[in-house]
Amino acid sequence: MGEPLRCAHCARSFVDAERRLAHTALRHPETVDAETIAAYRTLYRREQQQLRRLRLELIGGVVAVYFAVFVLYTVVG
Amino acid sequence: MRRWWPLVALGLLGWVGPVAASNAAVGLGDASARQVTIPTWLYLLSGGAVVGVSALLAGVVTDRRLLDQVVRWGPQRAVPPRVRWLRTLGPALGVVGAAMVLYHGWTGPQLALVNPAVAIAFVGVRALVPIAAMTVGDVWRWLDPIQLLGARGPPPGGDRWPAVGVYALAVWLETTAGVTDSPRRLAVAVAVYLLGGAMVTRVWGYPVWHHRVDPLAAVSALFARVAPLRLDAGGLRLRLPGVGTVAGVPRDDADAPIAPGALALVLFMVFELTYSGFINSAPGAAAITTAVGWGVPPLVVYLGLFLAGAALTGGGYAVAAQVAHHRIRTTYAPQMLALVFGPTLVAIAAGYHLAHYLLFAVTASPLLVAAVTAPLTPLSNPVVLAAPGWTQAIPAVAVLAGHVIAVGAAHISGFTAFPLRRTAIAVQLPFVAVMVGYTMLSLWLVTVPTAAAVFV
Q1: Cβ neighbour number for residue B32 with a 10 Å cutoff
Q2: Angular region, B241: left φ>0, alpha ψ -120 to 50, beta rest
Q3: Regarding predicted confidence, which is higher, B400 or B28?
Q4: Short-list B174, B176, B339, B172, CA closest to B267
């Protein structure tokens, strides 16, 4: 991990520029210019792709839990 | 939030099984054609699964605007100024209550069931003050008789560590020194508490007593965070239960949403209810009897259980914070993660409190009513209500509901504290794993038969 990046508007610091960008856009929206907004849009879309996969994994987890409880009861109970 | 209710219902189904079976055992067995008995392990697993699944489903909700709406939802009403005079009534009630505990405890019959001191202290304060705090807000701030001795003021610097110590001592005395059986000992304990409060207020001022030392004030203020009602300068606000534990997300590294001492107190609240549940259960009494059979003095066994349990509760949470810190890239220290998710544990403690005290408070409420309506006489004809069968569902529902609310609050806290949504989801999972463990332990405790604590 390199030197943490400080937010320009508050005392929080971040491990990379991506996180600082997201923080600035979310917490200090009044300070961002058009360029930052465009950059955040790109970041948000990329995140959306990753989240789609994560969401499937989470739903899969729900099904797995249900299945495990059901099978365990059938086998052991 | 609404989508979780079907899950709670699912957990309930798992619970209804053994009750149907045990009712059947009393004589209705022949009426039903086929009985299905749910084994305990399945019941515990389903309960843990309810919490785990609610976390997985919460992870699907990644819309910050929606989460923000959940936190801010709720109508607000202005409070007419003429209601404010009620404020002066609280401390007066507190003084009368304290005087009655001291008077009846010392002079009244030395029998717990008929002595009004025991009814006021255990039904009124121990059971009902936290329940009132988690429904309508910080009631102890209103009732506290000590506030008459000093002026209210802004919170002083310093943490609630003294309150953790006093609280631990109080729980220790409650479980081992017989203050529940001997009204006279109870009166002495209450007198020491009041004298301590008076002395701290005289020397350091009331804010130090209220914000740092008094464990009742701390418990009341913490439980008020989960209350669906909130009274402040803007008026009376209705909100979803538990959203108060999300408030106060760190703007910077030095601005933690809860102080370390207050976090320790919340963890202690979670532990304390589990501990008293365990030593008053049949397996707990059996385990203690076995240990004493090996030649260990009973008090050492209790102290060992007390310290080991407290260390395990705190240790489990600390491990969760460490693991969470490993999972994500952040400049926050593990301690900061523990503090970010710390307030959500209040919902768990609230669930445990309801599980252990709600039924007791309701069934024993006639004792309190009798004590208050005839303040100078001992209870001549103590009445306790009988609880209908379905009320046995309350402990399990309370435990599960507390955990599910805590999971939801942790989800929102993650999103408020971390700018990337993936991080916000990843960081919660270790905490959820610990919560699943706590859930299963507590569900087990509410299923096992209760028994009087042994050797104390």
Answers
A1: 12
A2: beta
A3: B400
A4: B339
Helices (H), B148-293: 161-176, 183-204, 206-208, 215-223, 260-279, 282-293
Residue of A18, A53, A58, A66 to mutate, testing the B interface (most B Cβ within 10 Å of its Cβ): A58
pLDDT 10s digits, B1-27: 444 555 455 454 444 444 443 433 333
What DSSP string runs through B412-423? HHHHHH-SSHHH
Contact A13 B46 (CB under 8 A): no
Of A1, A27, A58, the CB nearest to B59: A58
Helical spans, DSSP H, in B35-113: 40-60, 64-72, 86-107
Tokens of residue B30, six digits: 């022949």
pLDDT tens sequence across B260-270: 999 999 999 99
**Min distance B396 CA to chain A CA atoms (Å):** 19
The residues that bridge with B237 in the sheet, in sequence order, are B76, B230
Higher per-residue confidence, B245 vs B23: B245
Distance CA B381, CA B379 (A): 6
Residue B425 token pair: 């989801």
Contact B59 A26 (CB under 8 A): no
pLDDT number for residue B251? 54
Other C-beta atoms within 10 Å of B399: how many? 29
Q: Please report residues of B whose CB lies closer than 8 A to that of A76.
A: 39, 41
Give dist(CA B203, CA B155) in Å, integer: 16
B221: left (phi over 0), alpha (psi -120 to 50) or beta: alpha
Q: Smallest CA–CA separation between A30 and chain B, in Å?
A: 16
- Would the CB atoms of A15 and B425 count as touching at under 8 Å? no
Least confident range of B16-30, B78-92, B414-428: B16-30
Give the nearest partner residue to A62 out of B57, B255, B422, using CB atoms: B57
Contacts of A50 in chain B (CB under 8 A): 422
Could you tell me if B394 and B359 are in contact, meaning their C-beta atoms sit under 8 angstroms apart? yes
Closest CA in chain B for residue A67: B49
> How many Cβ atoms sit within 10 Å of the Cβ of residue B413?
27
Q: A residues 41-70 near B, CB within 8 Å?
A: 47, 50-51, 54-55, 58-59, 61-62, 65-66, 69
ipTM of the complex: 0.89
The answer to whether A65 contacts B53, with C-beta atoms less than 8 Å apart, is yes
* Calpha distance B348→B317 (Å, rounded): 13
